[in-house]
Amino acid sequence: MKSYKIQSPFVLVIFGASGDLAKLKLFPALYSLAEQKRFPNNFEIVGFARTPKSQEEFKKEFEYSVKKAYKNATKQTLDNLSKKVHYFHGQYDEIKDFKKLREYLHTLLPHKNVETLTYFSVPPVTFKDIIKNLGETKEGKNENLKLILEKPFGEDTDSAKTLFHFVARYFDEDKVYL
After folding, report:
1. Residue 91 burial (CB count, 10 A)
2. Confidence of residue 1 (pLDDT cuts 50, 70, 90)
3. Around Cβ 129, how many Cβ atoms within 10 Å?
4. Is 152 exposed, middle or buried (0-12, 13-18, 19+ CB in 10 A)?
5. Would you call 92 exposed, middle or buried from its count of C-beta atoms within 10 A (0-12, 13-18, 19+)?
6. Residue (of 39, 46, 48) closest to 9 by Cα position
7. Which pLDDT does position 124 carry in this prediction?
8. Contact present, 92 and 50 (Cβ < 8 Å)
């Protein structure tokens, strides 16, 4: 079976990076992809969360999560991946933090047309704030920004429909993954 390797540069922003889902599932999955050599040369991973912590603290948490999931994690792969991992502290309901995030992302990968993937590893109650702030700080309709929304998407059918219509105010359907 042939492995698919991502060809284009990208930035993955994980909202809720200090939470359990990120630590238990996302960080180990990212390691697994790195171990399989599926990432391009130019990529960065940014954990965004409300909890204040240093870059070093976040990298240690990332590495601990991987080692806990993969007892035989290779040092070289984990070290190489850790160099691509960054932390950004901010509030989900503060547009100023999203403007700072945008500036920070440009310093990591300043190339044009870099795909930005945003993974929502947060409670549904925070979705609207994040979506609104991402939508209001994006750099035009053609920006390559995609949303990956973790379930549950709303609390019931009606709230899910309402949330879907809210997302559509800011992002085209082809930019949203549920």
Report:
1. 15
2. low
3. 17
4. exposed
5. buried
6. 39
7. 84
8. yes
pLDDT digits (tens, 9 = 90+) for 11-64: 999 999 999 999 999 999 999 999 999 999 899 999 999 999 999 999 999 999
Average pLDDT, the chain: 92
DSSP string of 93-132, one letter each residue: T-HHHHHHHHHHHHHH---TT-EEEEEE-S-GGGHHHHHH
The pLDDT assigned to 141 comes to 66
**pTM for the predicted model, two decimal places:** 0.93
Burial class of residue 12, CB neighbours in 10 A (0-12, 13-18, 19+): buried
In the numeric block, which tokens belong to residue 10? 């990208």
How many residues can be counted in the chain? Answer: 178
> Hunting for tokens 């042939």 — which residue is that?
2
Distance CA 12, CA 14 (A): 6
Q: Are 12 and 42 in contact (CB under 8 A)?
A: no
Q: Compute the distance between CA of residue 104 and CA of residue 85 in angstroms, rounded to an integer.
A: 13
Measure the CA–CA gap between 161 and 124, rounded to whole angstroms: 13
